[in-house]
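Hi R.,

Here's the chain you asked about this morning:
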Amino acid sequence: MELTGKRVAVLAENYYENLELWYPVMRFREAGATVTIVGPKAGEAYKSKEGYPAKADISMEDAKASDFDAVIVPGGYAPDHMRRHQAMLRLVRETFQQGKVVASICHAGWVPISAGILKGKTMTCVSAIKDDVINAGATYVDKEVVVDGNLISSRTPADLPAFCREIIKALSVAKVGARA
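And here is the predicted structure, written out as tokens:
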């Protein structure tokens, strides 16, 4: 399995987009990764826009970039809540600074914006927040998936196959156990 030994954090907050959280969780588990759902409070369930729960395995305060090879940020309305949590922004920023994968889809682009990691980068997102991405100093492109170093981004649920494929590719070439 191509991701055996890899550890992936998927962020959760209320009003996440079902597919953008669960598709990567299941796909990366299927590929052998250890997937941890990170939310504001461990053990608490965060509901999607449709009410489907995602239970946090650990709290954002306990999540450390050194414990993961990648952080995945799903979209929906959740990123507007995520970006208000300094602990989530710290996790995204430190993961990025350590050269590990940070991936966002749809409205999730708000989280790397608030984490301050987009200046000079190229990315995509749902068109509704492209001005925010540009104002954060990134170049916006309208493509199903964009890889700029360790930053991976996609636009909408329809892009999930390409999004996950590029994340798996990036993690497959990263050295197992290469933790900061």
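One quick note: The two ends are 24 Å apart (CA to CA).

Cheers,
M.
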